[in-house]
Design a protein that fits this description.
The longest helix has 18 residues. The protein folds into 2 domains: about 170 residues, Rossmann fold (3-Layer(aba) Sandwich), CATH 3.40.50.1000; about 70 residues, 2-Layer Sandwich (Alpha-Beta Plaits), CATH 3.30.70. It contains 8 helices and 12 strands. Helix 5 packs parallel to helix 6. The termini are close together. It is globular, with a radius of gyration of 18 Å. Strand 11, helix 7 and strand 12 form a beta-alpha-beta unit. The protein has an 8-stranded mixed β-sheet, with helices on both faces. It is of the alpha/beta class.
């Protein structure tokens, strides 16, 4: 609040700006989030969304985000970037299409009902939220998916009833650290809800900048809440907190 022009606000998308839903394709941004982010964007150094989703998906699920001043969307954990209406990204790794081809056969062999595959272009996610026993299905998938990922040079990113197979070499912590350096940040806030956001929490601490970590709380994930400076009540709480911050910096 003392130096908003030097502040970077980093945010996860699913579970943070968008409520978690059984079908990831049916997700939608909190209706008040774009307006609040736009108000923040007028005053802070940068607003960045760091997500495992493709940037085009985030923009489709978040009408109004493209109008947030200076917004940067770092998709696929930072492999993909949207800024000023343009997307930049390296070529997709060859392991991803190979995993996509083999995954349906693997799931058939395990006989797990209600498991859903999500094609994320540069990654593939396996969701168990709609399975009769989501926790049991997740446990049964961990070892086979780890072997499949290793075979094709990928890594497994765990989440809320989801295991994502994606390229190595980038995570939200690394992406956030690079972005902070790029913007010469003088303070930082990161808001997340899931295990994949722990790396970003670590990056806030490692930056040695004045910083705050915020957890969009849920009963499904407690590890993040244990590490956060502030815990709020899901996306509603995130939007309320950001709204208070936007109002405060606009008066400063």
């Amino acid at each position: 609040m003392r130096d908003p022009a030097g502040a970077v606000i980093g945010l996860d998308f699913d579970g943070t700006l968008s409520p978690i839903v059984p079908d990831p394709a049916s997700a939608a941004i909190h209706p008040e989030a774009p307006g609040v982010l736009a108000a923040l964007g007028e005053h802070v150094g940068a607003v960045a969304i760091l997500t495992g989703r493709p940037v085009t998906t985030v923009l489709d699920l978040g009408p109004g985000l493209a109008d947030v001043p200076g917004l940067v969307v770092l998709g696929h954990y930072g492999f993909e970037r949207w800024e000023g209406g343009k997307i930049s990204a390296p070529p997709p790794p060859p392991g991803v299409p190979r995993v996509k081809a083999e995954l349906p056969l693997l799931l058939d062999s395990l006989g797990l009902a209600g498991v859903v595959i999500e094609d994320k272009d540069r990654a593939v996610a396996v969701h168990t939220r709609r399975a009769p026993d989501p926790e049991g299905a997740l446990a049964a998938l961990r070892e086979p998916l780890a072997k499949l990922a290793e075979k094709h040079g990928l890594v497994v990113e765990p989440g809320r009833f989801v295991l994502e197979l994606r390229p190595p070499g980038m995570d939200k912590g690394h992406a956030l650290a690079l972005f902070l350096a790029e913007r010469d940040a003088r303070s930082v806030m990161f808001v997340g809800d899931d295990l994949g956001d722990l790396a970003a929490f670590d990056a806030v601490k490692a930056s040695e900048l004045p910083g705050v970590t915020v957890c969009s709380g849920s009963a499904e994930v407690t590890a993040l809440a244990d590490r956060a400076d502030i815990v709020v009540d899901g996306p509603d709480g995130v939007v309320a907190l950001l709204g208070e911050l936007a109002a405060a910096v606009s008066r400063s």
